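User: Sequence recovery, please. Input:
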């Protein structure tokens, strides 16, 4: 399955962006994949941001984005979103969507659990 992320851009501190991720087939519509967002800032490792288990039973967020970011799925459009509010300069990074059919609920935060990755979309928060 190929994933494609989009929606990045330049935004001022305190602003909002919505990232989108689509799959090459009906993966997100069928709820067969758990989905996640990770990000990588310049010179840093790629880190977990948010994830949703395929059965919808657990949603996880990194502490740094709790209360500001929301992950969601639109099965009709076969899309996964990351709504980002109250953006801060330290949110600047390349954001990647990821998906996997066999991710267990307790392992949503692990990069190695996901076999499909999008190409990344740049988010820059700056005045």
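Assistant: Recovered sequence (127 residues):
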């Amino acid at each position: 399955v190929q994933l494609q992320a989009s929606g990045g851009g330049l935004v001022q501190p305190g602003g909002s962006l919505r990232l989108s991720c689509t799959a090459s087939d009906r993966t997100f519509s069928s709820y067969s994949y758990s989905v996640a967002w990770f990000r990588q800032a310049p010179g840093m490792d790629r880190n977990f941001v948010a994830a949703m288990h395929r059965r919808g039973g657990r949603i996880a967020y990194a502490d740094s984005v709790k209360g500001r970011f929301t992950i969601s799925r639109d099965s009709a459009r076969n899309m996964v979103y990351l709504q980002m509010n109250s953006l801060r300069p330290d949110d600047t990074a390349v954001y990647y969507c990821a998906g996997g059919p066999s991710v267990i609920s307790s392992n949503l935060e692990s990069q190695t659990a996901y076999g499909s990755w999008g190409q990344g979309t740049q988010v820059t928060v700056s005045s």
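The two ends are 37 Å apart (CA to CA).
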